[in-house]
Amino acid sequence: MYYISGMKTISIRIDETVKQRWDRLAGEYGLNQSKLMREAILDKLEELEDFYVVKERTAGSFEPVSNDDVWAKLGLED
After folding, report:
1. DSSP assignment string, 4-41
2. Per-residue model confidence as pLDDT tens digits over 12-54
3. What is the domain partition of the chain in residue ranges?
4. pTM score, two decimals?
5. Which residues contact 28 (CB under 8 A, 6 or more apart)?
6. b/e code 22-48 from CB counts within 10 Å (16+ = b)
7. Which candidate, 28, 38, 26, places its Cα nearest to that of 2?
8. DSSP of 36-58
């Protein structure tokens, strides 16, 4: 294992099945588990940050519209 300056360590709990899947995948393909976990966490963080930015920006700005109204506005009425 290597240490990168400025990096912090976190610990998580996962069930045995998830651990076995993780170990199998990493072993089968020679993957660096720490690097993959870091990337997975960063991907999820970015997804959540984007979600909450959109949620804050759009809070209270939507009014419900019926399907019939949407079709009518698009000129697609039967």
Report:
1. -TT---------HHHHHHHHHHHHHHT--HHHHHHHHH
2. 999 999 999 999 999 999 999 999 999 999 999 999 999 999 9
3. 16-59
4. 0.64
5. none
6. eeeeeeeeeeeeeeeeeeeeeeeeeee
7. 38
8. HHHHHHHHHHHHHHHHHHHHHHH
